[in-house]
From TrEMBL:
GO molecular function, one term: oxidoreductase activity, acting on the CH-NH group of donors, NAD or NADP as acceptor
Pfam families: Flavin_Reduct (PF01613)
Annotated source species: Bacteroides oleiciplenus YIT 12058
Protein name per Swiss-Prot or TrEMBL: Flavin reductase like domain-containing protein
Residue ranges of domain Flavin reductase like in the record: 22-167
Organism domain of life: Bacteria
Family of the protein in this entry: Belongs to the flavoredoxin family.
PANTHER family: FLAVOREDOXIN-RELATED-RELATED, HYPOTHETICAL CYTOSOLIC PROTEIN
């Protein structure tokens, strides 16, 4: 993987996140978990390039993100949809996602996990977190549609500075 300056990223992240999806990974070389996500974004906040992601507390990856200063986002390309399906439907509590998907972990200088299959990978340092609150929904229909029952709990929001970026090459 080849480093790229964050300012040189040219992807359309509406398309990348919404259609291609991403892996959110946290933990150490010895113990990490990854999950598929299709909700989030990239922008500029507090004079920093940032990502924001949403993780439900029921997800195994949540435990790793809560313990970690950093997490990574890996964009594998649509040709790896099968990997995303497994990482989005199976829990790392029950299966070894690396073994089941063929993912090839790489460790950054800061000790975070990326994947060799990533066409684009971002290393992110947490800056802010909060829990979505039912009474903060201006449109209560959204809360009713996406939360409670089989959907699970309200997401935790993480805003993180992009501290490193790599492209396949």
């Amino acid at each position: 993987m080849k480093p790229i300056a964050v300012k040189d990223l040219s992807d359309n992240f509406f398309e990348v996140i919404g259609k291609e999806w991403m892996l959110v990974t946290a933990g150490t070389k010895e113990s990490f978990n990854t999950m598929t996500a299709s909700w989030g974004g990239i922008g500029f906040l507090w004079n920093k390039p940032v990502v924001y992601v949403f993780i439900r507390p029921e997800r195994y990856t949540f435990e790793f993100i809560e313990r970690s200063e950093y997490f990574t986002l890996s964009f594998l390309g649509e040709e790896n949809r099968a990997i995303h399906k497994i990482c989005g439907s199976k829990s790392g509590r029950e299966v070894d996602k690396v073994k089941e998907t063929g993912l090839k972990p790489l460790v950054t200088e800061k000790g975070n996990i990326l994947f060799e299959q990533g066409r684009l990978s971002l290393e992110c340092r947490k800056l802010y977190t909060d829990v979505m609150k039912e009474d903060c929904f201006i449109d209560p229909a959204i809360c009713k549609q996406w939360y409670g029952g089989a959907h699970g709990g309200l997401h935790h929001i993480y805003v993180a500075e992009i501290t490193g970026a790599w492209i396949k090459g």
